[in-house]
Amino acid sequence: MSSHHAQQCAYFKEGLTLSYAARISALHQFDKALRQYEERLVAALYKDFQKSAFESFTTEFSMLYEEIRHAQRNLKKWMRPKRVRTNWINWPAHSAILREPLGVNLIIGAWNYPILLLLQPAVSALAAGNTAVLKPSENAPAVAAVIEEMINTNFDSGHLVVVQADATQTQQLLALRWDHIFYTGSTRVGQIVYEAAAKHLTPVTLELGGKSPAIITASANVHLTAKRLVWGKFLNAGQTCVAPDYVLVHESVREAFIQACISELKRNNYKLGQNHYCQIINHRHFDRLIALLDPKKTIYGGQYDRDTRFIAPTIMAEVTLTDAVMQEEIFGPILPIMTFDALENAVKQVKALEKPLAAYVFSTQKNEYQKVLSDLSFGGGAVNDVVMHLSNPNLPFGGVGHSGIGAYHGTHGLDCFSHRKSVLYKKNWFEAPLKYPPLSHKKLNWIKKFMK
Ligand code: NAD
After folding, report:
1. pLDDT of the chain along its 452 residues, tens only?
2. Fewer Cβ atoms within 10 A, N terminus or C terminus of the chain?
3. Contact (CB, 8 A) for 258 and 297
4. Spatial separation of the C-alpha atoms in residues 271 and 122, rounded to whole Å
5. What is the whole-number distance in angstroms between the Cα of residue 35 and the centre of ligand 1?
6. Domain total for the chain?
7. Rounded to whole angstroms, what are the CA distances from 306 to 287, 303, 310?
C-alpha cells in the first residue's frame, strides 16, 4: 500500500500528469477500459446484490460516460487561466486564477453505487492532472475485483491504481500523507477520515449521508408526487444516499398521497429479480433495517426474507420523531410518513435533525417552495422531483454540515481536485510611490481618498 503511495508521489513529481495531452489521453484510456469491462461489471453488480442490467446502466454507467464526455469537451477551456479584474491599487497589472492539481489523492468509495462513486471522482482527478489511489468498498467484493483488474491492467500504477482494503487496512492508508482525500460513505467513518487527514493538514472532500426529507404541501400534484417519490425511494432498494428518507405530508392530502403511493407500488410490483428490485447489500444491513420496522405502524409491505436479503417496499404511517426509524439514516426500502398542519412546523421538524444531504419539496405554490428552500440548509435537492438533481453535471454535488464537506461533478469536480492559484502579473513601466517611505500625512490622505 505504502509502495503505491510512494510510486505516485514520484510519478506526480516528474510532472507526468500535467499536460493537456497526458490528461486527455488518460480520459480516453479510462473511457475505453470502461466500455471493455462494462459487461463484466454489470455481471458483478448482479452477483453482489442482484442489481439489474437496466439500473446498472442508468444509475452507474450513463453518468460515468457523461462525466468523461463532459471532461473531454471542456478540458481545454478548464485549463486556461481565468482572467479576473484587477483593483486600482495594483495598477498597472492584470490578474488570473490558475488551476493546479492537488497531487496524490486517496479516493475511498461506498458500496451502494460501487462503480459510480469510486470512478466518477477518479475522472475528475485525472482531468485535473492528479494521480489517485482508488479504494473500493469491500461490501461489494465482485465489483471491487473487476474494477481492480480494469484499472490496474490499463494504467501505470504511478498514475492510477486500485488497492483493496478492509476497515483496518484503510486506516493504514489514511495514516499516509496524501495531498487530498476524497471519501464517500457514512458520517461516522467520515469523522475517522477527517481526524486522520488533520494530522497532515490534508484537505478532504467528504461525501456523506443523512436523513433527507420530502415535504409535500397541500398544493402538490399528489399523483405525480407519489410516482416520482416511489421511484426515487425504492430505486436500488432504497440504498441511495439522496433517496428521500422520510415524508412530511400536509394533513389535508395525507390520505390521497398514501393511496397514490400504494397504487404506484402495486403497479410497479417490486419483487426480487423482477422489475429491477435488488437485494439488501449484506446481512448486517438487513438486520439493521428489520430492527427499524414497526409492524404496528406498517400500512404497506413489511415482508422480508433473510436468506435472499429481500425486504419488500414498506410504508410506515403515524411515525413520530422518537420512533427507531427516525433515529438514523434508513438507507433501505422503508418509507416513514409523518404529517404537518402548517408549513412552518414541517420546517421545524426537519431543523430538529442534522443538515441533510438532500431535501425535496412538492408544491405548486412558489411562496411554499421558496420558504422551504430559504429556511432549510441541505446539500442539494429538487422542487417537485427527487434524486434527479445529481444527474445534472452543471450542479455541484455535495453535502453541508454533517452531510459532507466539498462538492464535485463536472467543473465542480475539477475544482474539487485542483488548487486555484492566484497570480498578479505586474507591469514594469510604472511604480506608484504611495507605499514607500517617507510615509507622510499627505500620502495617507491620498490613500484614504482612493479607498472611500
Ligand atoms: P461506510 O462508511 O461504512 O464505508 C465507506 C468506505 O469506508 C468503505 O470503502 C469502507 O471500506 C471504508 N471504511 C469503513 N469503515 C472504516 C473505518 N473504520 N476506517 C476507515 N475506513 C472505513 O459507508 P457505506 O455503508 O459504504 O455507505 C453508506 C453511507 O454512505 C450512507 O450514510 C450514505 O448516505 C452515504 N453515502 C453518501 C454518498 C454521497 O455521495 N454523499 C453516496 C453513497 C453513500
Report:
1. 679 999 999 999 999 999 999 999 999 999 999 999 999 999 999 999 999 999 999 999 999 999 999 999 999 999 999 999 999 889 999 999 999 999 999 999 999 999 999 999 999 999 999 999 999 999 999 999 999 999 999 999 999 999 999 999 999 999 999 999 999 999 999 999 999 999 999 999 999 999 999 999 999 999 999 999 999 999 999 999 999 999 999 999 999 999 999 999 999 988 877 768 999 999 999 999 999 999 999 999 999 999 999 999 999 999 999 999 999 999 999 999 999 999 999 999 999 999 999 999 999 999 999 999 999 999 999 999 999 999 999 999 999 999 999 999 999 999 999 999 999 999 999 998 989 999 999 999 988 988 88
2. C
3. no
4. 34
5. 27
6. 2
7. 8, 10, 7
446 Cβ contact partners less than 8 Å away, ≥ 6 residues apart: 434
* Residue-wise burial string across 361-383, b where 16 or more C-beta atoms lie within 10 A, e elsewhere: bbbeeeebbebbeeebebbbbbb
SS3 161: strand
Closest ligand 1 atom, residue 187 Cα:
32
> Grid coordinates in use for 58?
442508468
Do residues 360 and 273 share a domain? yes
**What are the backbone angles phi and psi of residue 280, rounded to the nearest 5°?**
-75, 140
159 contact partners, CB below 8 Å, separation of at least 6 = 8, 11, 16, 17, 26, 126, 131
* Atom 8 of ligand 1, residue of closest alpha carbon: 137
Q: Are 403 and 187 in contact (CB under 8 A)?
A: yes
Distance CA 351, CA 76 (A): 43
DSSP symbol at 397: B
Q: Which residues line ligand 1 (CB under 6 A)?
A: 108-112, 117, 135, 137-139, 167, 170-171, 184-186, 189, 192, 207-209, 241, 329, 331, 357, 399, 404
Cβ(250)–Cβ(217) below 8 Å:
yes
What CATH number has the domain bearing residue 389? Answer: 3.40.309.10
Q: What is the CATH number of the domain that holds 166?
A: 3.40.605.10
- Residue 23, in any domain of the structure: yes
Joined together, the cell numbers standing for residue 298 give: 406498517
Give the contacts of 174 (CB within 8 A, at least 6 positions apart). 106, 181, 192, 193, 196, 197
Contact 163, 1 (CB under 8 A): yes
Whether the CB-CB separation of 219 and 365 falls below 8 Å is answered with: yes
Domain interval for residue 117: 2-208+400-423
